[in-house]
Design the sequence.
C-alpha cells in the first residue's frame, strides 16, 4: 500500500514529495548510519522522490552503490538511495505527517551498539540476511 507523502529538512530549505510504503518502516543499525549520526528510520518510496530546493541538497556517495542526500544548510538526512535510483528510502522523521507509519523491520542488527534496543516486535535482519535479500538486485548494501 502506498501513501503520498511530503516532507522537509529541519530548516525547510529542501522539500520533497513521493509515494511511500508506510506499512514497513525499517531501522538501520549499520556502521555507516551510526557514523552518520545514529540509527536511521526510513520508509521505502514507491514513486521517484521529487525534490525542491535542490540547490541546498548535498549528495554523499557512502558506498559503491548507495548515496545519502542531506541538506547542506541544516544537515538533516533526507534520503538514502541506490545510485541508479532503483531503491529510494526517506527518513521517517522528515515526513510532514506520518500517522500511518508502522515499524516492521530492523537491519544490520549485528552492527547495533549494545547500549540500546527498540521494544517493538519487528523482523530482525543481520548483515548476512540483508546481503541475501539484495543479492538478486545486484546490490548487497
Ligand atoms: Zn535544511
Ligand atoms: Zn544503515
Sequence:
Amino acid at each position: 500500500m502506498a501513501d503520498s507523502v511530503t516532507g522537509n529538512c529541519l530548516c525547510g530549505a529542501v522539500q520533497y514529495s513521493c509515494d511511500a510504503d508506510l506499512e514497513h518502516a525499517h531501522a538501520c543499525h549499520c556502521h555507516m548510519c551510526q557514523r552518520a549520526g545514529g540509527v536511521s528510520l526510513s520508509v521505502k518510496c514507491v514513486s521517484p522522490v521529487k525534490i525542491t530546493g535542490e540547490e541546498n541538497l548535498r549528495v554523499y556517495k557512502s558506498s559503491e552503490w548507495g548515496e545519502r542526500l542531506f541538506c547542506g544548510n541544516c544537515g538533516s538526512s533526507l534520503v538514502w538511495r541506490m545510485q541508479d535510483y532503483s531503491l529510494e528510502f526517506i527518513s521517517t522523521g522528515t515526513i510532514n505527517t506520518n500517522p500511518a507509519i508502522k515499524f516492521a523491520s530492523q537491519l544490520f542488527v549485528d552492527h547495533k551498539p549494545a547500549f540500546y534496543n527498540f521494544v517493538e516486535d519487528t523482523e530482525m535482519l543481520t548483515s548476512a540476511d540483508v546481503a541475501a535479500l539484495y543479492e538478486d538486485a545486484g546490490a548487497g548494501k
